[in-house]
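Now for my pick.
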Amino acid sequence: MLLSSKGIVFHTLKYGDTSLIARIYTREAGLLSFLIKGARTQKGAIRPSHLMPLNLLEMVFTLRQNSSLQNLRELKCDPVLFELHVEPVKRSITLFISELLNRSIREEEKNTDLFDFLSGSLQILDLQKSGLQLYPHYFCLQLTRYLGFFPDMDYREGDCLDLAEGCFVGTNAVGPHHLSPKESQWVFSLLNKPFEESCQLSIPSIERRNLLDGILRYYRLHFDHFRDLQSHEILREVLAG
C-alpha cells in the first residue's frame, strides 16, 4: 500500500557499506523502520543530512504489513528546522529528546495526537530564543500525557509529587519516591502552563539539574528497563549556566 505521511526521524544506524536503516515515527502508520539504500554514497538521492535526529519529513513509502523494513519512495525535510542541529544548546536538547523518544516510544500504531505534539514541540524548540534551560523538563513532563502516566493534577500548595503513584500528596505522606514540595510546585507549573509561560520560571542551576533527575526517575518507575540516557550528562553540563 502506497502512503503519503509526515514523519519524525528517531534514529539511524549503518547497514552494510552504503545504506542506512532509519527508525521514523510517521503520522499515518506509527513507528516504522526503513531501509534506505545508497544513503551513504555520493549518488544517493536521500542523504544522511535528511535523516538527522528529529528532522521533520514529508514522505511517500510503500507500507508492507508483514515486513520489518519498509521502502521509501520519496522524502524531503518539511518544515526545515534551521537551528536544531547547529545551535549548541538546541543540539544538546535535540540529542537528549531523540534518545528519550527512542527509549519510550514503541508504538507501531497510528497516534496522530502524539505525532502532532512531537512535531509542534520541535518547531517551538527550533524557534525559541530564550528559556531553553527548562525546555527538557517541560518536554519530558508534557510527553507523559501521551505515554499513559501523566500525573493527577489535584495539587495544593506544599504537596509533594509521589513519582511511583503519579499524584500529589501531603507532606505527611512523604516517601522514598517523593519530590520535595518546591520541586513538586515547579512540576505542577510546568504541567499546567504553556511553554511561553513555563520558560519564565526562575529555578537555580543546581535545582534545575536535580529536577530533571527527578523527572527521569519518574520515567524509570513507569517504564520497565528504562536505562539511563547517555545524553543526559552532556545536557546537564550544557545547561549548567
Remarks:
- The radius of gyration is 19 Å.
